[in-house]
């Protein structure tokens, strides 16, 4: 994807170097302050945690390790191995297959409405985190649950089990 986006641009370096520069910037980004506590709380509820990124698992690995929560995540998956990008249903199905569960047993927690919509259409339960407290956009499939932050301890009774 970065190659496609950068190719028509006037660059101050070669295309490969520009892609590497952009992608390396992702490793310097911190997680939002509420993420570590939220991630640490979910396994306490008996949930298995995995990630599915449209990016690189190496970037996700570094991001979660720097946040001190990598050990709480069972698997870090990339759509590179799924054969389809999110929000294609095949990407979410890849995660279910990899973990030997049905799509309906998965809960996607996301801040991106496009991801919520894709996961819902693929048969997953969804939880949308609205950090700004905004209403969910009026387009796409609405999430199963809406969180204004990570109130996971008070939400466990509505969580699908695996």
For the record, the CATH class of the largest domain is Alpha Beta
- Share of helix, binned: 25-40%
Indicate the mean pLDDT. Answer: 84
H/E element order: HHHEHEHEHEE
Overall geometry comes to globular
Identify the CATH architecture of the largest domain.
Answer: 3-Layer(aba) Sandwich
Question: What's the name of the CATH homologous superfamily of the largest domain?
Answer: HAD superfamily/HAD-like
For the secondary structure, the number of strands is: 5
Number of individual domains: 2
Show the helix and strand layout.
Blueprint: H1 2-6, H2 15-26, H3 35-44, E1 50-53, H4 57-66, E2 75-78, H5 89-98, E3 107-110, H6 113-121, E4 125-129, E5 145-147
Parallel strand pairs: 1-2, 3-4, 4-5
Describe what this molecule looks like in 3D.
There is one protein chain. By secondary structure, the protein is α/β, with parallel strands linked by helices. It has two domains: 1-30, no CATH class; 32-158, HAD superfamily/HAD-like (Rossmann fold), CATH 3.40.50. It contains six helices and five strands, in the order αααβαβαβαββ. The protein has helices at 2-6, 15-26, 35-44, 57-66, 89-98, 113-121; strands spanning 50-53, 75-78, 107-110, 125-129, 145-147. It is globular.
Brief digest:
This protein has 162 residues and is α/β, with parallel strands linked by helices. 35% of the residues lie in helices and 12% in strands. It is built from six helices and five strands; from the N terminus they run αααβαβαβαββ.
Short descriptors:
162 residues, alpha/beta, Rossmann fold, 2 domains, 3-stranded parallel beta sheet, two-stranded parallel ribbon, 5 strands, globular, disordered C terminus
């Amino acid at each position: 994807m970065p190659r496609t986006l950068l190719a028509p641009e006037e660059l101050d370096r070669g295309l490969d170097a520009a892609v590497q520069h952009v992608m390396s910037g992702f490793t310097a980004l911190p997680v939002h302050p509420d993420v570590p506590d939220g991630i640490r709380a979910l396994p306490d509820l008996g949930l298995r945690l995995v990630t599915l990124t449209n990016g690189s698992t190496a970037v996700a690995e570094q991001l979660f390790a720097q946040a001190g929560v990598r050990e709480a995540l069972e698997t870090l998956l990339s759509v590179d191995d799924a054969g389809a990008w999110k929000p294609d249903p095949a990407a979410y199905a890849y995660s279910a297959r990899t973990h030997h569960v049905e799509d309906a047993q998965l809960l996607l927690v996301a801040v991106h409405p496009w991801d919520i919509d894709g996961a819902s259409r693929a048969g997953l339960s969804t939880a949308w985190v609205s950090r700004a407290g905004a209403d969910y956009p009026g387009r796409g499939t609405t999430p199963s649950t809406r969180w204004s932050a990570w109130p996971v301890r008070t939400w466990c009774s509505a969580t699908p089990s695996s």
